[in-house]
Amino acid sequence: MSFWLEFLPIIVYLLLIIILIVGIVLGVRFIVILGKAQRVVDNVNEKVRSLDGLFQIIDTATDKVVFVTDKVIDFIMEFIAKIFTKPEEEEPKKITTKKEGKKKHE
Fold it and tell me: Is residue 26 domain-shared with residue 40, that is, in the same domain?
C-alpha cells in the first residue's frame, strides 16, 4: 500500500506537467493562428475598401434605373386602367327652353 502512496502522486504530477506543457504549446499556436487570420482579414478589408467607389456607382445607377422603370410602369398601368375602365356616364343635361314671350292682350 505504501507503494501506491508514493508512486501515485508522482504519476499525477507528471500528467499535470504534461497537460500544462500541451496547453502552453496549443495556446502559442492559437495566438500564431489568430495573428495570421487577422492579417488575412485586414487584407480583405483593404481590397473591399478599394471597391467601395465601384459599389457606389453601381448603387446610384440601379437607383436611377429603378426610378425610370417605376415611372414607365406607372404610365403603362394608367394606360391599361383607362382602356379597361368604363367612362363614367355624365348626367343628361336638361335642356331649358325660353319661355314664350308675353302674350299680347288682344
Answer: yes
- Flag whether 75 is in a domain: yes
29 within some domain: yes
The letter for the amino acid at 75 is F
CA distance linking residue 4 with residue 33, whole number of Å = 43
pTM here is 0.46
CA dihedral 42→45→50→56, nearest 10 degrees, is -170
pLDDT digits (tens, 9 = 90+) for 16-55: 999 999 999 999 999 999 999 999 999 999 998 999 989 9
28 grid coordinates:
502559442
Tell me the chain's radius of gyration from C-alpha atoms: 46
